[in-house]
Design a protein that fits this description.
The protein has 390 residues and is of the alpha+beta class. 35% of the residues lie in helices and 23% in strands. The strands form two sheets. Strands 1, 2, 3, 6, 7, 8, 9, 10, 11, 12 and 13 form an eleven-stranded antiparallel sheet that branches. The protein has a two-stranded antiparallel ribbon with strand order 4-5.
């Protein structure tokens, strides 16, 4: 699997969050590498050993063993409060008790899980990445295309994995590509873990200028609403977007042209037509209030003239300035500020564009955001709408 440089977990302070006995067990399989760099893996580790371990993990020129880097990578991203809760849920769903004391830290939970049940933390790690994904491109099924029925899902996902592996190999990213699927009966979410483009950077090795080449890990996310077959994908390059859209269509729906790249989902003209009526939220469960805080206007004048207007209350600004759209102009992007019932004292934003792009502060907000957009008339074709979380 591609390598990634460690950041947070490699500091002495972060390594000290791991129980010294767990840390020693984690290092136990790499005695030659540790001895060569003056680190003892005899439990419990001393503060000197932890400091030295931090130095060799931070500096990629030390070429730490790939399994050790992989372990710390997973622990790093699962060693916070939110990630720990997701990891505990995954363990509980499997009937697993780690036997940890009440004062165990998130890093203890992550490390112990990696040592005992690495497959659980690997899947929870990917699922946590899905939860954090924010920006999606949206594709609707082409007109006249019937809803497919999925059978033998594992075989279809395996075929999709092979197709994406070939695409990334042709794009000079290597052949490392692994898919993780999450199917709750309403949404099929597929996480793609693959290599990024190779990089070569200057560094200092043994006190002398040198270079290091590595390949970072990248994640892409594909979500299909199984009721409507709306496709959402994390945004990438145009080449990747086309390849993913066609590969998903061909391997999951039997038709590379199943999804129409030009079929619009969102219409923002209601902003000027309905004014404050388009942000009403009294009929929406889970949303306390919605404000329009930014729009982008395309004047469609042949010279790509655009204008952005921002305000804490754009409709009030419109009234004060007697603002009206110029003839032929259109709103191409809007930012809404939501106050959700789960966080009444903090606003979270969602950006919507007429090019079928949706960006939420949290991926989990997209269910309520989509419901708002549907009920306020921003959705062009209600037959294609997904009301579930990406």
């Amino acid at each position: 699997m591609p390598r990634k440089q460690l950041n947070r977990i490699a500091t002495p302070e972060s390594l000290s969050q791991i129980d010294p006995l767990f840390l020693a067990e984690l290092l136990h399989g790499h005695p030659e590498f540790l001895d060569r760099h003056g680190v003892s893996c005899v439990a419990p580790l001393s503060q000197r050993d932890i400091t030295r371990l931090s130095e060799i993990l931070i500096d990629p020129t030390h070429n730490a063993p790939a399994p050790l880097i992989d372990a710390f990578l997973h622990i790093e991203e699962m060693a916070d409060d939110d990630a720990m809760l997701k990891l505990l849920e995954a363990l509980e769903s499997r009937g697993i008790d780690l036997g940890l004391p009440p004062n165990a830290t998130p890093a203890d939970v992550a490390t112990r899980t990696w040592l005992r049940y690495p497959e659980v933390i690997e899947r929870a790690h990917v699922e946590h990445r899905v939860w954090k994904a924010q920006s999606f491109g949206i594709f609707l099924r082409a007109e006249g295309k019937a809803l497919p029925s999925i059978s033998h899902l594992d075989d279809l996902v395996s075929a999709l994995e092979n197709a994406l592996r070939q695409h990334h190999a042709k794009s000079r990213r290597g052949s490392a590509c692994e898919l993780f699927k999450f199917n709750d009966g309403e949404l099929l979410t597929i996480a793609v873990r693959r290599g990024g483009t190779y990089r070569r950077e200057s560094c200092i090795a043994n006190g002398e200028p040198s270079t290091i080449q590595y390949q970072p890990i990248k994640y892409d996310f594909i979500t299909i609403d199984l009721a409507t077959w709306e496709l959402r994908m994390t945004r990438g390059s145009k080449r990747d977007t086309v390849a993913y859209r066609r590969a998903v269509g061909e391997n999951l729906a039997g038709d590379p042209d199943f999804f129409n790249p030009n079929q619009p989902k969102y219409d923002l003209s209601r902003i000027m037509r309905d004014r404050r009526g388009c942000v009403m939220s009294t009929d929406l469960i889970g949303i306390a209030s919605v404000d329009l805080v930014e729009i982008e206007v395309d004047y469609n004048d042949g010279i790509s003239s655009r204008d952005t207007k921002k305000s804490a209350d754009l409709f009030r600004a419109f009234d004060t300035q007697h603002f009206q759209l110029a003839l032929g102009a259109r709103i191409t992007k809007a930012r809404f500020a939501f106050t959700f019932d789960d966080a009444p004292n903090k606003k979270r934003t969602a950006d919507v564009s007429i090019w079928n792009r949706l960006r939420c502060t949290r991926s989990s907000d997209s269910a309520l955001v989509n419901e708002f957009l549907l009920k306020r008339g921003f959705v062009v074709d209600v037959d294609h709408v997904a009301l579930a979380s990406a």
